[in-house]
Design goal:
single chain; 680 residues; alpha+beta; Rossmann fold; Methionyl-trna Synthetase, domain 2; Isoleucyl-tRNA Synthetase, Domain 1; four-stranded parallel beta sheet; 20 helices; flat
Amino acid sequence: MEKKFKRTLVTTALPYANGPVHIGHLAGVYVPADIYTRFLRLRGEDVVMIGGSDEHGVPITIKAQNEGVTPQDIVDRYHKIIKDSMEELGISFNIYSRTTSDIHEATASEFFRRLYDNSQFVEKSSMQLYDEKANQFLADRYVTGECPHCHYDRAYGDQCEKCGTSLNATDLINPKSAITGNTPVLKETKHWYLPLDRWEKQLSQWILEGHKEWKTNVYGQCKSWIDLGLQPRAVSRDLDWGVPVPVEGAEGKVLYVWFDAPIGYISNTKELLPDTWETYWKDPETRIINFIGKDNIVFHCIIFPAMLMAYGDNYQLPDNVPANEFLNLEGDKISTSRNWAIWLHEYLRDFPGKQDVLRYVLTANAPETKDNDFTWRDFQSRNNSELVAILGNFVNRAMVLTHKYFEGKVPEAGELQPIDNEIFGEIKGIGQSLTNALETFHFREALKEAMNIARAGNKYLQETEPWKVAKSDMARVATILNVAIQICANIAVAFEPFLPFMSGKLSEMLVLGKLSWDMLGQPDLIAAGTQLGQPELLFEKIEDDAIQAQLDRLSRIREENKLKSWQPEPQQPDVPFDDFMKVDIRVGTVLECKRVPKADKLLQFLIDDGMEQRTIVSGIAKYYNPEDLTGKQICFVANFEPRKLKGVLSQGMILSAQNPDGSLVVIGPTGAVAPGAQVK
């Protein structure tokens, strides 16, 4: 029998404050967490939702260095962007704090010190890369070099972004410091390690035997780590940004961000509930749920629980960790460094008032069991064909008909017909399935069930046809529309966890008052005679031009990334200056340009070279129309040996540059030049 808890603590992975939040974060963590928290609140349960920004670590210091500002400037900027955009999307944190707060530093320091004093760490010395010019040890992200696996020459010290292989900085070939560009040297340094192997038996029993109900991806990843044997993990770093290691002899060292960040859940709870926070962390009657993405499974299921075990003092371990897989964008992996993302604050700017549309689409496409894909065309289709045509259409028809026939007052229902009883029986069954799906973290399935209420409502109106019945039996119309309005009220309840803005607007139109989950499936939520508000459209169609603008933006980003990742061909061997001087490069004016018959790639030019006219054939027809080049000035090799191409004698070679995508761009002067002028 499943244990009943008095309260629930919901935690959400702390987004990293070196950039805004994107749709991958939302689909993986924040929207599911908010749905679950709102569901528990509607049931009247004691639930607290904790969030905050992760503000320490190397990527923040690198971004600050690149921008010429302090790390605090970076985290202040992005913490505000993240917090404000989450609030605007309706993510209903009880607190959204940060790891640069005083209470967090004190909590993290005390946590480390207790483990240190109780001999829960092991000290190890190791050789790490050191920049002698910068006079500091280099964290993994401060080292770049050649990947030993795919030989990409700009791999980071922790991972190669080209082949995806995890690395150690000392694995890199020809490593360079990202600070000075110097070649680093190996130097000894001391750090503290959490001996995960010491807790392997307890972790194995807790996870592999005690939580077989966890999602397959979570359970499987944990089992893989435990089966391989757990190893000690460093909890400190040589860095000047972070929570200082609170022991003597640790100058210049801070708590490693993976150790520091999860303690943020505790410090943020302390900040919210200074007098009762321990109830939510140490009382066995509290259920702790960690919402995270799959890249954080090990930290939340193995490392943080090991930290809590080592600390003792009755800290409770999470009851469930419903981690999601990754959401891709238009077929490509979302990447902050490549700007391949839909940023929440930009979405809210581009689609004002459409918070619920994004929440709906991200839930409908939630990567619950495998990676999933977000596309703008699917976003548009789901809005227009589901939110507008199904949900919005039903509510609008019910409201408009009630205003048309009964001046907006909920009519008294007469004797219910079998079809009326059937619809309430169907909704009650949907409500039970919806509840079961939410309780087991199947939010995509739960959303489908909620939409089934609107589908049932549309079917009910189509089958009862009150607009036809009104010609002969207004008493029956009153019953039909009473039922339809009660279905609208059920929709307001069912969708509140998913689409809180729509639910709130609909509740106002229905004069519904405070919602609770036990209202779901009830046939008498709104009393007869209630004066309804004026009908308003809950959703509006999204037109093609709005979607095309987003696709064009992504297309530009894709091209920019190609240019950034492109590497030019290696330089040809040096040639003697005298050999180079033999090449006669001149400027010519294109008098005529036409396609060469039966040659898709060739254009035929008639060039004014300042002395006479000459014909040149060039393989650039794929990239230019003849009329685009007529009258233009171009550079050409004048003393190139003539040769025939498709029967045309070509007397030179036109110079072009090749882009990363293989396209060619004709080279020419930036200003007017006399035909025949030599290029020096």
